[in-house]
Design goal:
With about 450 residues, the protein is of the alpha+beta class. The protein has 13 helices and 20 strands.
Length: about 450
């Protein structure tokens, strides 16, 4: 029987941790097999600050996903975010020893390896090296150099950099939860896979993912990632403002924001009031919805203006870099009433709310097509692309669990798969392979291995 290509995405957010199990159905759409969700304790602004609590939250989400799906999870693709993430533009080149031979994947890998050796600030590590456009012997704007002739191969790169310790802490939490780490992806990239169409990426689009602790930005133009940024504010800051401004507890502030909150104060009449139960024996509090909206409005304007500064830094005002498809809002914060109108008003750009339903199977639960799950859906898609079998049916497990899920078994399986891939690549040397796919396989596998080695040695 052919093995199922089942992938698992783990979105470690500031407010929630989501474990999502999915596979492709016969129509190429994503079928969600099970989802587990837990309150995220121990994560602040996208960064782990309490290992023990984070492990417990991850285990809870994993357990729930396994119970809902009937699958046992072996490894996961994880999203990386947090205020420590920054991106740089870099151009590099190699001189080929034999220009008479066509350019192959190895040449591109050599160029990427060279970029990976860039000197970073102390404690920083390169997470993604994303080639943009190539130049061969001075001929520019080449998107796919494989199969062409040339002596000097040059490319501009989008390099995403993050704090090494933060990434290793995430790795440690996952390993301690009893599962393996099979891949790392920048969260705005995962969200963009889930909610953006290829046409939008070609035309030019800015994806704004408003999470609990951070707001992530990814800008695409001509189908290529051009800019990424993580802004250390999200929905939690809005709730904190409501808590302070209305002198109520956090739980009530969150409920008020979700149920009655609006980013546009003009929508509320002066006489609209909500009564909130007082704390133990105290009088109930009456809160004007107009005041509530004013508090929300002030903070959302601040977040959107920061994002817009990043969009302008990319060069949106240059006619050649114009983002024709405008802005796509996703993440939990995108569900705030009238946020679309406010973003359009501040930026003057077309805006829509991004739902991850385009890639989901028709019979999927409506809940999963909420902007809340955009990152998790993107991570599962990423895992499926990497041809991972990250979970097996519980009823198919014949051996004792400990024997099946010992880490070395997974590693040897990965190594065997890699060796088979290498042989396969050599035998199909003439067959064209997309630059992007090659980079994904080699670079991410190596980066994840590096983290695994580090964690093993740390023990």
């Amino acid at each position: 029987m052919e093995k199922e290509n089942v992938a698992v995405g783990l979105d470690i957010g500031t407010t929630k941790i989501v474990a999502m199990i999915g596979k492709k159905n016969e129509y190429g759409k994503l079928e969600i097999l099970g989802v587990g969700k837990s309150k995220s304790l121990g994560v602040a602004r996208g960064v782990v600050n309490n290992i023990t609590q984070t492990i417990q939250s991850i285990q809870q989400a994993i357990q729930e996903a396994e119970n809902n799906s009937g699958y046992k999870i072996k490894d996961v693709v994880v999203g990386i975010a947090g205020q420590h993430i920054r991106s740089i533009q870099h151009t590099d080149y190699i001189s080929r020893s034999n220009p008479q031979e066509v350019i192959g994947g190895d040449d591109i890998q050599l160029l990427i390896d060279q970029v990976n050796k860039l000197a970073m600030l102390p404690g920083e590590e390169i997470i993604h090296v994303l080639p943009q456009e190539f130049k061969i012997d001075g001929q520019s704007e080449i998107k796919e150099p494989i199969g062409m002739y040339g002596g000097r191969l040059e490319s501009s790169f989008h390099v995403v950099v993050g704090q090494a310790s933060s990434i290793r802490n995430v790795g440690r939490c996952i390993q301690s939860s009893g599962i393996e780490l099979s891949g790392l992806t920048l969260e705005p990239l995962a969200s963009s896979d889930a909610v953006l169409s290829q046409e939008e990426k070609e035309a030019g689009v800015a994806l704004i993912d408003i999470g609990g602790g951070t707001t992530d930005l990814a800008i695409f133009k001509d189908g290529i990632i051009r800019h990424t940024a993580v802004i250390p504010f999200g929905g939690n800051v809005i709730s904190d403002d409501i808590k302070e401004g209305c002198s109520i507890i956090e739980k009530q502030a969150e409920l008020l924001k979700v149920k009655f909150g609006s980013a546009w104060p003009g929508e509320n009449r002066d006489n609209e009031i909500v009564s909130i139960p007082g704390l133990r024996g105290r009088e109930p509090k009456e809160i004007s919805l107009k005041n509530l909206s004013k508090i929300i409005h002030a903070r959302v304007v601040e977040i959107v203006e920061q994002v817009f500064t990043e969009i302008k830094a990319y060069g949106h005002e240059d006619p050649r870099k114009k983002l024709i498809a405008g802005i796509v809002l996703t993440g939990g914060g995108a569900q705030l009433k009238h946020i679309k109108q406010l973003v359009e008003y501040i930026t003057g750009m077309d805006t829509r709310i991004g739902y991850p339903n385009e890639h989901l199977a028709g019979d999927s639960d409506e809940e999963f097509s909420s902007p809340l799950y955009a990152t998790a859906v993107g991570l599962v898609m990423n895992g499926i692309e990497n041809q991972k079998q990250s979970a097996v049916r519980i009823d198919e497990i014949a051996q004792p669990k400990a024997a099946v899920y010992r880490a070395p078994v997974v590693e040897s399986y990965d190594r065997r798969e890699e060796e088979e891939q290498e042989v396969d690549t050599r035998s199909k040397a003439n067959k064209e392979e997309s630059t992007g796919d090659k980079i994904k396989k080699t670079f991410f596998d190596r980066y994840v291995d590096k983290i695994k080695d580090f964690l093993d040695n740390a023990e």
